[in-house]
Structure formats: structure tokens, C-alpha cells
Amino acid sequence: MTPADEVTRAVEAVLFAADAPLTVGEIRAHVGECDVRAALDRLIEDYAGRGIALVRRGERWHFETAGDLAHFLRREREEPRKLSRAATETLAIIAYHEPVTRAEIESIRGVQISKGTLDVLMEAGWIRPAGRREVPGRPLTYATTPSFLAHFGLASRRDLPGLEDLRAAGLLDPVDLAMEQVVLENDDEED
Questions:
Q1: What does the record list as coiled-coil region(s) (predicted)?
Q2: For 115-134, what is each residue's pLDDT tens digit?
Q3: Domains by residue range for the chain, with CATH
């Protein structure tokens, strides 16, 4: 067995035994100084098309059940927890603008948010306090978590849908589309 095979086996064992997704640095702390990224690439190839897959969520790696087989593992139907419109809007603002303060969220939404809205999102594990802004009053900022990425199946925030994706999916509010048209018409008149 080559040293590369031993590294791959060691990385596989560490990830399999881990109770939470691991960063490359955390994996390296277990297996020593070696080419962990090459081992991860090899494991991705080895597990392609199988019942489990090695996936990256943010900067963390873990094994998960192949998406097309998840229905075999459900024992009882999960009731999806519905977020209020305010919580959904707040989560979207945080995801697209992080790190963002409460005042910035309220400015974007145009209305105040209740403390409960942020609490619900933190309890779900989708947002976290991300430090304080270096301005008078030092307001707390919020950002999304690796759990947010995992829940929505995103490798990183760059995978969030853009304006064209939302329009194609029919997810833009007719008011948003009308406002966009007015802006475009005004721009044409100015030229």
C-alpha cells in the first residue's frame, strides 16, 4: 500500500468517526502533516455514485447519505417548520448582506423586526452573532452558519441564487418586477 493510500484511509476514518463536519486543518490535526486535500479528492471519486458521499459545506467536510436515497432512512414524516414571512425576509437579508446589523436589516426591510425573529433563526442554528461593528454604539452583527449552508444544500454563500435565478423560478414578487421595470424605464429616459 502506498503512503497516499494510507493517508486516504486515515482521512476517511477520521471523517467517518467525527461527530461533526471537519475543516482541513482539523483533519490534519488527526492525521498529521500530509496532503489532506488530495485525499479528500480521492475520497470524493471513490464515493461517487454510492449510497454515501463525501461533501463540503462551507469549509467543512463530512459524509452524508446520497440525496436520492434519503427516503429510505425516514422513519416518520417530519413536519417542516414554517418560518414567518418576517423570519424568511430577515434570513435572506442576513444571507445576502452578512455581516449585517439589526438596524441594517430593518433599513432593508423597511420595518422593525422583533427580537423573537432573530431568536427563532438562532435557535434553528441558521444565524449567529458575528461580532460588533466598529462604529458608535458598537452594534452586534449577524451572519449565517455552516448549518444554514447544510440545510439549504449550499457549498458556500456564492451558491445563493442571483436575481436572474429568482426571476426564472418565478419567485420575484410582481411588485418587485414592476419596480424594476420603472427603474429601467427611468434609466432609458435619462440616456
A1: none
A2: 789 999 999 899 999 999 88
A3: 3-72 (1.10.10.10), 85-160 (1.10.10.10), 162-191 (no CATH)
